[in-house]
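Let's practice the habit of predicting before peeking. Look at the sequence and jot down your guess about where helices and strands might fall. Then scroll down.
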Amino acid sequence: MDLGLSKDEIALQARARAFSRDVARPRAGQIDRDEQYPWDIVQALAKAGFLGMTMPKALGGQGRSFLEAVLVIEEMAKSCTVTGRIVVETNMGALSTVMAYGSEAQKKLVARLVLAGDKPAICITEPEAGSDAMAMTTRADKRGDTYVINGKKHWITGAGVSRLHLIFARVFDEKGEELGIGGFLAVRDENQGLRATRREQTMGLRGMPEGELTFENLEVPASMTVMPPSGFRRGFADLMNAYNSQRVGAGTVAMGVAAGALELALEFAKTREQFGRPIGEFQGLQWMLADMQTQLTASRLMLHQAARSRGPQGSAFPDPMLAAQAKIFASETAIRIVNDALQVFGARGYSRELPLERMARDVRMFTIGGGTAQVLRTLVAAKMLGWKLPQRRDGYAPKRSLRDAAE
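Done guessing? Here is the structure:
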């Protein structure tokens, strides 16, 4: 299928495919069983040049586009979901936020850590502030040239293994007046007061820790505040734009897992025989395979379109509506594709000896993390209608009906 890729992009894709096949695939099952972060894979990715690809060349990166990162992510996720996630986190998310809004010192810090193998953690979610991110209670109090952060985050990807953290907190000045929500960079083991206090026992993606972080009088220099031009009061919306790249990356991991599952199912349909012939000759399975490929192609096209796009007003990140649509569609269809691929294998697909059951557990995460499919539908609807759609009950003002207005 012609995706309009350049020769360089095709070469990058082929190189990622070879890495996925030769390095990630042999380790994927063991990573899942051990539930340990795969530092050997991280070092291999760094050596192969797949970490920090989207960073500017002046910082040691390759100046690659989000589309090029997407090509690599898909290939990695075909073999190992955790490896795909690592490539997302080291090319998008917190990294791309700092590259867009950070100071030169902040960019150099991020570049140094990522190129050495660190996976930055973006810290937004709290026990009582999930989809409702504005309900966060973690606070950063200004004290001279320092901010002191106290609070708790949970379901933080990379908790306990990430060194660099982009922490979102409510900001208060020295008089105790709230200024808005800001982002702060802290490095584990360098900034005292940052602790990983609990690891979640997850259904899938078991080699990528999700956990709870506690901040107790965590001191962060004011120079490590990530500040968009719009400042604290309105800057949270700009900082959250980073999630548009993260959403494209997450959707791509889901799509990559689905692509890997379909490849397995297709090969099995050609070689498995029942009733004296390959099961691929039965129309029922042919239609399943055709539907899987159709859904996969649509997902890939949507994700590529989103990766190529840019949001309004010179945004450095993908268009919010395209990113949301792509993640909704790719994550939901990936669950169906993996489930159907498992069905093609019958009882064998249900066995832990094959990767299908691991893929089914892994892919389930992607309609949840990085914005649930339901919340993203609200975002899409708001863009379509041109309205703000606050979800709090007191956020809606009663409107007069057309009949009342006419009277």
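How did you do? Residues 7-92 form a domain with the Butyryl-Coa Dehydrogenase, subunit A; domain 1 fold (CATH 1.10.540.10).
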